[in-house]
Amino acid sequence: MSLTHLNERGEASMVDVTDKAVSERSARAQSLVTMSPAAFAQLVAGQNKKGDVLATARIAGIQAAKKTADLIPLCHPLALTKVQVDFELEPSQNSVRIASYCRLAGRTGVEMEALTAASIAALTIYDMCKAVDPAIVISETRLVEKLGGKRGHWQRGDEQSGGEQ
């Protein structure tokens, strides 16, 4: 079986994963949001006029992961069993590092869901802080690790994992 987004007529279509084995699959992704000292101080102090920035961004990331198939063409709708979005404050850089994790037992991976969770959490932070700093930068959005499926384990920076970076 060849996995491709092209059907027999060469048209874009969703990959048929019917014959793939169900297995435990997970993925981790990250993103970085860097802002002005004033916007970061307001976020840390919990003084943003729109409310709790990180709590809202966490919920947004989780909701987005669950809706990835509605956002990314040709993605499979997945029954995720876990979605986690965490934040690490980096005061020396006025940054928030977002880490997302998605898991399921299924026929296809959850990389897109983890990347979507991190991306939407970052966009939510931007949206809630842009009144103080419209020059906020979202960067370093990337897949960090994936487990499961035919390729097994892949981790960014691990040359032995067999995946492309």
Walk me through this protein's architecture.
The protein has 165 residues and is an alpha+beta fold. The chain contains 4 helices and 5 strands, in the order βαααββαββ. Keywords: Lyase, Molybdenum cofactor biosynthesis. This is Cyclic pyranopterin monophosphate synthase. Pathway: Cofactor biosynthesis; molybdopterin biosynthesis.
Task: Please outline the helices and strands.
Blueprint: E1 23-34, H1 37-45, H2 53-66, H3 68-71, E2 82-90, E3 95-106, H4 111-129, E4 137-147, E5 154-155
Antiparallel strand pairs: 1-3, 1-4, 2-3, 4-5
Helix pairs in contact: 2-4
N-to-C SSE string, H for helix and E for strand = EHHHEEHEE
Q: How far is the first residue's CA from the last residue's CA?
A: 24 Å
How much strand content do the residues show? 25-35%
Helix content: 25-40%
Count of alpha and pi helical runs: 4
What is the strand tally?
5
- Main sheet makeup: 5 strands, antiparallel
Q: Supply Rg.
A: 18 Å
**Quick one: overall form?**
elongated
User: What class do helices, strands and sheet pairing give?
Assistant: alpha+beta
Nutshell version of this structure?
This protein is an alpha+beta fold. 28% of the residues lie in helices and 28% in strands.
List keywords for this structure.
5-stranded antiparallel beta sheet; Mopterin_CF_biosynth-C_dom; disordered C terminus; 4 helices; 28% strand; molybdenum cofactor biosynthesis; lyase; single chain; EC 4.6.1.17; 165 residues
